[in-house]
Design brief:
The complex is a heterodimer of chains A (175) and B (148). Chain A is mostly helical. Chain A contains ten helices and no strands. In chain A, 81% of the residues lie in helices and 0% in strands. The radius of gyration of chain A is 16 Å and the shape is globular. Helix content of chain B is 86%, strand content 0%. Chain B is mainly α. Chain B folds into two domains: 53 residues; 66 residues. Classes of the chains: A mainly alpha (175), B mainly alpha (148).
Chain lengths: 175, 148
């Protein structure tokens, strides 16, 4: 979909148009689901977070003041992911070594994809949680390193270094 | 970072992202997207209801304030409390000024002031001494007055 069409949909959403909101789900739903799935490795949880994201979007759309909408929505998705971790008190489990086991198990139950996809899910589980999240943010949001650095309030060099390290390790694990 | 290192970093990132692109995550079911759309529409309607209720509540509060103000004005409109209080304060000040001691002191000050003006207009040789004495007297009287 062309950028000006997306802009038109966003303007409609800001006016409270139901049709535009459902269009927004069509545009971003799959990407955001992919982002959540790669972070959690759990389909049900990803669906839950996806629904939460779009409900939150209804509440917050008036605060969107232009700029990269992809950056805006994925920053919100990242916040929802972290809120969820805090709320469920699963942060430790998901972010430390246990996450590897959880992600390996969930990759097996995710279903519907070939072996390479499962292998990727397991390889992602080998990355540090922070690095994994950055790699996913970069891939699914298509944000520039500068935008990611701004949204996370971290130096661009740090972001670049983490993403590079993560993707390099991923290549080795997948190789 | 030198040019070669930068080129290597860019290549690593590009190839890593190619792996991600080649191994897409499973997509959500259409049923899930339909559920999300339903949730969004429900949230939107809920939000509209809340906004509407807030507007109604705001209008009701505003109307109540207006009615209360009109009732108060109808009841007390002819005797504004503010004016009454101002007049009371002013009266007490003037009543205080009739105090006998103050009157005596005021008369004395006026007397000294007239003597002072007379001395200042006098061309005599000891005029400056008279003025000094009178000024000292005036300062003393003034001091007594404010001490009460």
């Amino acid at each position: 979909m062309a950028q000006h069409d997306i802009d038109r949909v966003i303007i409609g959403c800001k006016k409270g148009d139901e049709g535009c909101f459902t269009q927004l789900v069509d545009i971003y739903g799959r990407r955001c689901f992919g982002y959540f799935y790669r972070l959690t490795g759990n389909r049900d949880l990803s669906e839950e977070l996806l629904s939460e994201l779009f409900v939150k979007l209804v509440e917050k759309i008036s605060s969107y003041r232009g700029g990269s909408f992809d950056g805006w929505i994925f920053t919100m998705a990242s916040n929802i992911f972290h809120d969820h971790l805090r709320f469920k008190q699963r942060q430790t489990r998901l972010l430390d070594g246990h996450s590897k086991r959880i992600m390996s198990q969930s990759a097996g139950t995710a279903g519907g994809k070939d072996d390479d996809a499962d292998k990727l899910q397991m390889a992602l589980g080998e990355l540090d949680s922070d690095v994994r999240e950055l790699v996913m943010m970069r891939f699914y949001s298509q944000m520039s390193f500068k935008e990611i650095a701004e949204s996370r309030r971290e130096p661009i060099g740090t972001i670049l270094s983490k993403v590079h390290r993560g993707l390099k390790k991923l290549r080795e694990l997948m190789g | 970072m030198d040019e070669a290192a930068a080129r290597q970093t860019a290549e690593d990132i590009e190839k890593g992202e190619e792996i991600l692109g080649a191994n897409q995550s499973p997509g959500p079911d259409e049923r899930v997207l339909a559920e999300v759309k339903k949730s969004v529409v429900a949230a939107l309607r809920r939000q509209r209801t809340v906004v509407f209720q807030k507007r109604i509540l705001g209008a009701a509060v505003a109307a109540a304030v207006i009615v209360a103000s009109v009732l108060v004005m109808m009841r007390y409109g002819n005797t504004p409390a503010g004016n009454q209080q101002t007049r009371l304060i002013a009266s007490s000040v003037w009543e205080g000024a009739d105090d006998a001691d103050v009157t005596v002191l005021k008369a004395e000050i006026e007397n000294i002031q007239s003597e002072l003006s007379g001395a200042q207009s006098d061309d005599g040789g000891n005029g400056s001494n008279d003025i000094g004495d009178l000024e000292t007297e005036l300062i003393e009287v003034n001091g007594d007055m404010w001490k009460g």
